């Protein structure tokens, strides 16, 4: 794959979009996560082994959680269950996105791209806040933070999508060198 961050962007859009017919999601999240995981090996070839391992574990966890939730009866059960269970089932995907942003920011920093480093680091922080917010809102009963937490989550998702598109052609993001560039 020449630009694996494009596959990540498409996969994340499939995960984020939700359209039900007959109880089933027409854009199954497992397909999106499969695209993301398929691109992960190329993107993280320069990432240290521990971070790469964490990304794989979280990505597979998100894939498995989304596969379980694709079934209407399971999805409805989680929708009616305690909100903390919904948070727990979303935690692998939010944490994956945070770790991915951090890993990409480290790669961008190593390539000397400070602008990309900053945006990716802030997006990672947004995902960390998104992952932790339910503990405060649900566990701490701070309902006034529910809407701001939702906004941070949405902005983090959009930011990651845009950043994947913006930096897809960068070598530090796993893009293959074009034959034209190799000849120069």
TrEMBL record:
Organism listed in the record: Nocardioides panacisoli
Domain of life: Bacteria
Protein name: Uncharacterized protein
Keywords noted in UniProt: Membrane, Transmembrane, Transmembrane helix
Transmembrane segments: 31-47, 54-72, 84-106, 118-142, 148-169
Keyword Transmembrane helix annotated: yes
């Amino acid at each position: 794959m020449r630009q694996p961050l494009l596959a990540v962007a498409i996969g994340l859009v499939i995960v984020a979009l939700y359209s039900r017919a007959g109880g089933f999601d027409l854009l199954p999240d497992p397909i999106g996560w499969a695209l993301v995981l398929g691109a992960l090996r190329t993107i993280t070839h320069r990432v240290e082994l521990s971070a790469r391992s964490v990304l794989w574990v979280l990505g597979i966890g998100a894939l498995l959680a989304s596969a379980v939730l694709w079934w209407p009866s399971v999805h409805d059960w989680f929708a009616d269950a305690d909100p903390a269970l919904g948070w727990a089932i979303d935690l692998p995907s939010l944490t994956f996105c945070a770790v991915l942003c951090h890993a990409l920011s480290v790669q961008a920093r190593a390539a000397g791209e400070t602008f990309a480093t900053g945006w990716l680091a802030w997006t990672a922080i947004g995902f960390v806040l998104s992952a932790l917010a339910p503990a405060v809102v649900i566990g701490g009963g701070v309902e006034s933070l529910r809407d701001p937490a939702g906004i941070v989550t949405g902005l983090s998702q959009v930011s990651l999508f845009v950043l994947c598109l913006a930096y897809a052609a960068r070598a530090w993001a796993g893009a293959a060198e074009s034959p034209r560039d190799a000849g120069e």
